[in-house]
Amino acid sequence: MKGLHWFDKFLFFLNILAALVLLFSYLLPYIPPSTFALLSVFSLGVPLLIVVNVIFLLFWLFRLRIQALLSLIVLLIGFNHVTSVYEISSGEEEMQGDNVLKVLTYNVRQFNQYGWAEDRDIPQKISEFIKEQDADVVAMQEYYNGELNIARSFPHKYIKLKDKNAEFGLAIFSKYPIIATGSLDFPTQSNNNAIYADIFKGGDTIRVINVHLQSFGIKPNLNNIEKQHTKRVFLGMGQTFVRQERQMDLVRDLIKNTDHQSIVLGDFNNTAYSYVYRELKALGLNDAYKEAGNGFGKTFEIKYLPLRIDFILPQDTMEILSFENYEIPYSDHFPITASLRIGK
Questions:
Q1: Is 37 among the domain residues?
Q2: What is the pTM of this model?
Q3: Domain ends where: 82, 115, 146?
Q4: Do 76 and 106 share a domain, yes or no?
Q5: What is the crossing angle of helices 68-77 and 46-62, to 10°?
């Protein structure tokens, strides 16, 4: 650090800390939350750590300082993590045909039933958006019964409400016949769940699994952490990740026990740096964003962090032709779509 001004030395010290924490975070997807729940919470901060290290890299490069090598090396070691924040790809144009399936997933936040937004036309706007996308299959989380006007576009559907007295749950809408359905009915009195529908198109049966893994009791953003007791917040978030691990086990078993090609999509309430994401990918699933996405893959509206917690993960027997995410203000999540070639 010879030749550095005292302020530059201080910045480089911060750079060392940021680089070391990012390097450690690369291990987080391999640590089950059930063994160390609090560690899993830090996976939410990985996008911010990557951005901070990129800023340090650019700062030292601009100054023509050898210190730029620190963040450069750490970012290269975790290159797969870096591309989970920002992706540059040349996905093909969407195609039509018997062997192409376009899927859309969207956490619709119960169509604004509880007035989180001033806009009272959100159900109609979401209906119009879905019609414009012209997807073959639409999966929704936090679906509120009876609010959509898309019945003519999707003659086949499977809706699973939380219970017989509830008006919200999960939904799968399809242009093509649904020949079987099911619900995993997550335990521990969770409001979250996963459902599936076997959809027949072009001589193939595709199992579409719509997941909504355990939600946080609070939004895990910096404002909440400042306002509430930090230890209690992090402990609660850690237990959420433990529940997600158990729920993911059920989804994994469902995939293993089917002969159909599978697509897992929905709201994971977790990032691409998490244990649950890595375990599902290990089943031979690809991330549509990483294969064909462009730009930041942000799917959740939260300050300071480009969080991507909604995914489309098709089996690697399918070719990913395109991926899009849409930053529209109708929910706290953003919808995503992917076009897939499903022929074996």
A1: yes
A2: 0.89
A3: 82
A4: no
A5: 140
163 burial level (CB within 10 Å; 0-12, 13-18, 19+)? exposed
Distance, CA of 179 to CA of 116 (rounded, Å):
37
- The helix (H) or strand (E) run that includes residue 194 is strand 193-201
Domain holding 67, by residue range, is 6-82
Q: Are 28 and 43 in contact (CB under 8 A)?
A: yes
Burial environment of residue 174 by CB neighbours within 10 A (0 to 12, 13 to 18, 19 or more): buried
d(CA 10, CA 16): 10
Is residue 191 located within the same domain as residue 314? yes
The answer to whether 218 and 236 are in contact (CB under 8 A) is yes
Nearest Cα residue to 235 out of 77, 33, 68, 94: 33
Number of domains in the chain: 2
**Which is more confidently placed, 100 or 8?**
100
Helix H or strand E encompassing 169: strand 168-174
Single-letter amino acid, residue 90: S
- Residues composing the chain: 344
C-beta neighbour count of 200 within 10 angstroms: 16
Place of tokens 């940021």: 18
Instruction: Identify the CA nearest to 213 among candidates 175, 239, 240.
Output: 240
CA 18/CA 182 separation, integer angstroms: 45
Residue among 79, 80, 57, 77 nearest 69 (CA): 57
- The mean pLDDT of 274-282, rounded to a whole number, is 96
Give the Cα separation of 121 and 288 in Å (integer): 31
**Per-residue pLDDT tens for 25-71?**
999 999 999 888 878 888 888 988 999 999 999 999 998 899 999 99
- Would you say residue 225 has pLDDT above 70? no
Radius of gyration of the chain (CA): 21
Contact 276, 222 (CB under 8 A): no
CA distance 187 to 137: 27
